[in-house]
Structures are given as C-alpha cells and as structure tokens.
Write a structure and sequence with these properties.
The chain contains three helices and two strands. Helix content is 54%, strand content 9%. A hairpin with a 4-residue loop joins strand 1 (2-4) and strand 2.
C-alpha cells in the first residue's frame, strides 16, 4: 500500500523505519531521506508506527 503519494513511500518502508527506531512520521521520513509535503499521509504513517511499536 502506498502511504505517501508525494514521496512514493510504501507501508513496508514506514514499518521498516519504525522497526529501526523512528518514533514519529517525521523521523521515519527523515530516515528515508525525505519529508512530508502535503501532510495527508502523516496520520496513516503515525498509525503504522504506533502499530509496530505495540508489537515490539
């Protein structure tokens, strides 16, 4: 699933960033070398990160 159309970030990319220590969407995006542009993806990315942190 594509999470961020502006940066072509997929769900698996956000999950990987969360597993590697990103606690926020902004941290995850920075880890991937980009930043949120329009911001519509941030709530979805945040939910994925929260889900990964709950499992860990």
């Amino acid at each position: 699933m594509v999470v961020c159309i502006c940066n072509a970030i997929r769900e698996r990319d956000v999950r990987t960033a969360a597993r590697n220590g990103s606690r926020t969407a902004c941290q995850a995006y920075r880890r991937m070398g980009c930043e949120a542009k329009c911001g519509q993806c941030v709530p979805v990315a945040r939910a994925i990160i929260d889900e990964e942190r709950a499992v860990a």
